[in-house]
Amino acid sequence: MLGMIQPAELLCRSGFSFKKTLMAAERERADISQERDEWCKHRQPAMQQSPGFSPAGLSQHGG
Predict the structure, then answer these.
(1) Cβ atoms of 33 and 27 closer than 8 Å
(2) Cα separations in angstroms, 24 against 20, 44, 53
(3) Which of 22, 50, 53, 60 lies at a C-alpha separation of 20 to 30 Å from 15?
(4) In this predicted model, what pLDDT tens digit does every residue of 31-57 receive, in sequence order?
(5) How far apart are CA 49 and CA 26, in angstroms?
(6) Per-residue confidence (pLDDT) for residue 63, from 0 to 100
(7) At what angle do helices 30-38 and 19-27 cross, to 10 degrees?
(8) What is the rounded distance in angstroms from the CA atom of residue 36 to the CA atom of residue 44?
(9) Mean of the per-residue pLDDT values of the chain
């Protein structure tokens, strides 16, 4: 809607930030760490070798 501020935008403008903190905390969990290792060592390289892979579509954020 034009002219309406979304709740997340309002929180950010007010100085609140929680998404990155939650994501960082989750990375310390054993199950999340194990899944991340699996992704980085096996699934991501396999995906990069598949036809149609485009590195331009990847996020440039931490990994």
Answers:
(1) yes
(2) 6, 20, 28
(3) 60
(4) 888 888 888 888 888 887 877 777 676
(5) 29
(6) 46
(7) 80
(8) 10
(9) 75
pTM for the whole thing? Answer: 0.40
Q: Could you tell me where the DSSP H helices lie in 1-63?
A: 7-13, 19-27, 30-38, 44-49
Query: Any idea which residue has 């990994």 for tokens?
Result: 63
Residues 6 or more apart in contact with residue 5 via CB below 8 angstroms: 13
Amino acid at 17: S
Contact 53, 47 (CB under 8 A): yes
Residue 62 has pLDDT above 60, yes or no: no
